[in-house]
Structure formats: C-alpha cells, structure tokens
C-alpha cells in the first residue's frame, strides 16, 4: 500500500489490517501510552472544500504521532490559481512526507499520486470518502463485535459516501443494500464492482425494502459540497429517502445508525433517530482520528 486513494485499490486483508491498527492506536491513546511513530514527519493537508472533522482529526492525529501537519487552503495556495497538479505534486514531495487532499475530482488525487513521490491520502472527493468509511467500519465492529455477515443499509444519494460504503462493506464480508432515487445512483465503477458479489449487493428505490433486517443504517446529506445550488431540486427528489422511526422499525433489533456528519435533521434523518443513536454517531466521528492515524502510520512510518 503506497497511497490511500480509494477503497477499490485495497485488499480485504489491507482493510482489516488497518482496522486492527486503528483499534491498537485507540487503546494506546486511551491508556496514555505515547506513540511518536511519525516523529519528525510532516503531512501537508490540501483543502479545496470545507471541513471540520477531517482537518481537526488529521492535524491532531499527526501531533499525537509525534509529527506535524500543515493546513494548505487552495484559496491561498497557487494550486487554487491554476498551478498544475503535476507540478504541485513534485514541489510538495520535496518538502513533505505525505499529503492529504480534499478536492472535487478523483482524478486530481490520482494525479498527485502519479507525479509525487510521497504517499497521498484521499480526504474526500466527489467520487469517494475512504477515510470516513474506515472510521465507520471500525465503529460498527466495535459495537457489533464483527463485520462479516452483517447487513449494511444506505439510504439516500448515491454519492461519495455511498460509493465508499458499498466497496468497503462488500470487501469486509457484509451484505450491502442501498435505496436511492433512480437518477441518483452510485458511480458506474462501483456498481460494476458490486456486481461480482451477486445477491450480497442490492439496489432499490424503496427505503423500507433496503432497510429490512439491517444491522446498520447509514445516510448522508442530500446535497453534497459543490451541489448547494441543487438543494431545492434534491429536496424534491429525495423526499421519502429519510432515516426515521418507520424505517428503523423494519431493521433488526439493536440496529445501529451511522452518519458521517454534518447532518441535516428533518431531511435525510429525523432528530429523533439522530438523538437515539447519537452515541454511535459520535463514536464514529471520534474514530476518524484513530482510523486515520492507522493510515498515516501504515503509509508514512519508516
Ligand atoms: N465527515 C466529514 O468528512 O466531515 P468534515 O467535512 O467536517 O471533514
Ligand atoms: N457527501 C458529503 C460528505 C461530507 C462529509 C459531501 O461530499 O459534502
């Protein structure tokens, strides 16, 4: 594993190894055992979109690992004024030990990896959000004691979260069921990947059908970053694609709810369901820190 660009690139073993390492690092943190594995290393963090969790968890994670993180806003850097990604990659590779990037096009992340000579981590693109899904899998395994054989259900937009959840869930042996409106389906590459898994993958336009006997229900905003102007159209398209009490009633007993956050109560999830599952959702947010530290260690340790 040289980079962390998308879950499609990882084997099941690599995903599980990262989850085990994330659990170990979480335990060390809780026990107050220092772990300066990345002493003297610097991570550059390029942001072309807003962030609370990703920025703070990566920056804190690098500090806890004995290294340093540098926030690079595309608004202030030359990359935001059109300097080619190919050149940015080669310049930053001369200073840094790794780059985390949050941007629009997946291609930009792949280009950084192609032209740079240091590990690249995808901190969200329009195509996928692999760091988030590592945290989700860590949280589900903590609460359920296993991943294999569980049913994951995703309700809503076939966006970056849906794409990563489908790939991550199937790779670790879960069955994955997704409900989305027909014009908002996941990416074709992800659907092609999922097709290999036969009836372990289901896609429907009926949220209740997707949620039946689920062990974990996930959702995400109806309009992602960059789609703000489509908010009204999307509100109409996604009406009914909500995680609410009626939907939770058809899931398995003890069914978890996960949300990558930020959440829009009254849209993709009701306030009632959100609050009833708040502990699980904030464990998920916390696990961004531990899961990403595992990725940083795996890619950047000597
Ligand atoms: N879930 C997530 O990636 O949050 P931020 O946008 O706050 O980083
Ligand atoms: N789908 C959302 C996820 C935010 C963490 C977005 O891309 O805005």
TrEMBL record:
<dbReference type="Pfam" id="PF02729">
    <property type="entry name" value="OTCace_N"/>
</dbReference>
<comment type="function">
    <text>Reversibly catalyzes the transfer of the carbamoyl group from carbamoyl phosphate (CP) to the N(epsilon) atom of ornithine (ORN) to produce L-citrulline.</text>
</comment>
<feature type="binding site">
    <location>
        <position position="288"/>
    </location>
    <ligand>
        <name>carbamoyl phosphate</name>
    </ligand>
</feature>
<dbReference type="GO" id="GO:0019240">
    <property type="term" value="P:citrulline biosynthetic process"/>
</dbReference>
<feature type="binding site">
    <location>
        <position position="102"/>
    </location>
    <ligand>
        <name>carbamoyl phosphate</name>
    </ligand>
</feature>
<feature type="binding site">
    <location>
        <position position="160"/>
    </location>
    <ligand>
        <name>L-ornithine</name>
    </ligand>
</feature>
<dbReference type="Pfam" id="PF00185">
    <property type="entry name" value="OTCace"/>
</dbReference>
<feature type="domain" description="Aspartate/ornithine carbamoyltransferase carbamoyl-P binding">
    <location>
        <begin position="2"/>
        <end position="142"/>
    </location>
</feature>
<feature type="binding site">
    <location>
        <begin position="260"/>
        <end position="261"/>
    </location>
    <ligand>
        <name>carbamoyl phosphate</name>
    </ligand>
</feature>
<dbReference type="GO" id="GO:0016597">
    <property type="term" value="F:amino acid binding"/>
</dbReference>
<keyword id="KW-0963">Cytoplasm</keyword>
<comment type="similarity">
    <text>Belongs to the aspartate/ornithine carbamoyltransferase superfamily. OTCase family.</text>
</comment>
<dbReference type="InterPro" id="IPR002292">
    <property type="entry name" value="Orn/put_carbamltrans"/>
</dbReference>
<dbReference type="GO" id="GO:0042450">
    <property type="term" value="P:L-arginine biosynthetic process via ornithine"/>
</dbReference>
<comment type="pathway">
    <text>Amino-acid biosynthesis; L-arginine biosynthesis; L-arginine from L-ornithine and carbamoyl phosphate: step 1/3.</text>
</comment>
<feature type="binding site">
    <location>
        <begin position="51"/>
        <end position="54"/>
    </location>
    <ligand>
        <name>carbamoyl phosphate</name>
    </ligand>
</feature>
<feature type="binding site">
    <location>
        <begin position="129"/>
        <end position="132"/>
    </location>
    <ligand>
        <name>carbamoyl phosphate</name>
    </ligand>
</feature>
<dbReference type="GO" id="GO:0005737">
    <property type="term" value="C:cytoplasm"/>
</dbReference>
<dbReference type="InterPro" id="IPR024904">
    <property type="entry name" value="OTCase_ArgI"/>
</dbReference>
<dbReference type="InterPro" id="IPR006132">
    <property type="entry name" value="Asp/Orn_carbamoyltranf_P-bd"/>
</dbReference>
<dbReference type="InterPro" id="IPR036901">
    <property type="entry name" value="Asp/Orn_carbamoylTrfase_sf"/>
</dbReference>
<dbReference type="InterPro" id="IPR006130">
    <property type="entry name" value="Asp/Orn_carbamoylTrfase"/>
</dbReference>
<keyword id="KW-0808">Transferase</keyword>
<feature type="binding site">
    <location>
        <position position="220"/>
    </location>
    <ligand>
        <name>L-ornithine</name>
    </ligand>
</feature>
<feature type="binding site">
    <location>
        <begin position="224"/>
        <end position="225"/>
    </location>
    <ligand>
        <name>L-ornithine</name>
    </ligand>
</feature>
<dbReference type="GO" id="GO:0004585">
    <property type="term" value="F:ornithine carbamoyltransferase activity"/>
</dbReference>
<feature type="domain" description="Aspartate/ornithine carbamoyltransferase Asp/Orn-binding">
    <location>
        <begin position="148"/>
        <end position="297"/>
    </location>
</feature>
<dbReference type="InterPro" id="IPR006131">
    <property type="entry name" value="Asp_carbamoyltransf_Asp/Orn-bd"/>
</dbReference>
<feature type="binding site">
    <location>
        <position position="78"/>
    </location>
    <ligand>
        <name>carbamoyl phosphate</name>
    </ligand>
</feature>
<protein>
    <recommendedName>
        <fullName>Ornithine carbamoyltransferase</fullName>
        <ecNumber>2.1.3.3</ecNumber>
    </recommendedName>
</protein>
């Amino acid at each position: 594993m040289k980079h962390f660009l998308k879950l499609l690139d990882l084997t099941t073993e690599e995903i599980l190894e990262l989850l085990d390492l994330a659990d170990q690092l979480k335990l060390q943190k809780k026990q107050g055992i220092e772990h300066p594995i990345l002493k003297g290393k610097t991570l550059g963090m390029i942001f072309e979109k807003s962030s609370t969790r990703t920025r703070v968890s990566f920056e804190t994670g690098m500090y806890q690992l004995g290294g340093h993180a540098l926030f690079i806003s595309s608004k202030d850097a030359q990359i935001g004024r059109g300097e080619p990604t190919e050149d940015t990659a080669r310049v930053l590779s001369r200073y840094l030990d790794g780059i985390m990037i949050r941007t629009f096009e997946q291609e930009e992340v792949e280009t950084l990896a192609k032209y740079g000579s240091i590990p690249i981590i995808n901190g969200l693109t329009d195509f996928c959000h692999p760091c988030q899904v590592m945290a989700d899998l860590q949280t589900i395994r903590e609460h359920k004691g296993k991943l294999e054989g569980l049913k994951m259900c995703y309700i809503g937009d076939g966006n970056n979260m849906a794409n990563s959840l489908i790939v991550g869930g199937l790779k670790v042996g879960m069955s994955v069921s997704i409900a989305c409106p027909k014009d908002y389906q996941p990416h074709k590459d992800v659907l092609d990947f999922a097709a290999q898994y036969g009836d372990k993958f289901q896609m429907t336009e009926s949220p209740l059908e997707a949620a039946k006997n689920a062990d974990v229900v996930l959702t995400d905003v109806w309009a992602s970053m960059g789609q703000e102007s489509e908010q009204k159209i999307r509100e109409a398209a996604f009406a009914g694609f909500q995680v609410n009490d009626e939907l939770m009633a058809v899931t398995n007993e003890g069914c978890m709810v996960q949300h990558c956050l930020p959440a829009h109560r009254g849209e993709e999830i009701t306030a009632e369901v959100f609050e009833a599952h708040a502990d699980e959702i904030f464990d998920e947010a916390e696990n961004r820190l531990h899961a990403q530290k595992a990725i940083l260690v795996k890619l950047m340790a000597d």
